[in-house]
Amino acid sequence: MPIYLQLKRGARRDQTGVIDAKWSEISRDAVHDLDKGNGAVNDKQLDKAEADFKKAIEIAPTFGPAYTALGKLYLSQGKLDDAISNLHLAIRYDPSDFEARLTIGIAFLNKKDLDGAQRELAKAAVLNKTAVTPRYYLGVVYVQKKNLDAAQKELETAKQMIDGKAFPLLHRYLGGVYLAKQMNKEAVAELEAYITQDPSARDGDKIKQTIADLKSKVN
Fold this sequence. Notes:
Layout (H helix, E strand, L loop, with lengths): L27 H15 L3 H14 L4 H13 L3 H14 L4 H13 L3 H14 L4 H13 L3 H15 L5 H13 L3 H14 L6 H15 L1
Helix pairs in contact: 1-2, 1-3, 2-3, 3-4, 3-5, 4-5, 5-6, 5-7, 6-7, 7-8, 7-9, 8-9, 9-10, 10-11
């Protein structure tokens, strides 16, 4: 199942209005085009967004956030190679760019490059220790690598970080890990949370049958 980021606007800015102090020397025109592109994303005008991001890069070829924005846009469209090439440039110009690390990790995961995904997601988790998303996706990577202990650790960490907020797929993956490890009681709890949080899940009937089977074993 392809995994894509939800595109959204929301770059952090300092008190001067610059996205980050490290980009204070970047042309205001480039920043303006980045803002226009983010606005176009919000309005679902993705072709315009792409053009605006490319214009920002043309004006300021080392402007990392523009490459990150373009990479996120391409990932949302399933253009994985284009996403990765732009995100590599974002990281080249700013190795501390959390969004670029996270997004390229997800792109690698979609390409089934699990080692690349693990490497970049782990770096994203270090860059932002309070972020749930890299921990969740690391759990997904380890599930696909069949490293259940590592998957359990990452997914349980992510679950603690969401602090009871809805995140159905996290429960789905964690329930699957518990199921594979024959931790039936824990699997039931997670799979029930998944169904509760996503009542219209496409695999809902299958999950409900799994829960019923597990409950019969637990009892």
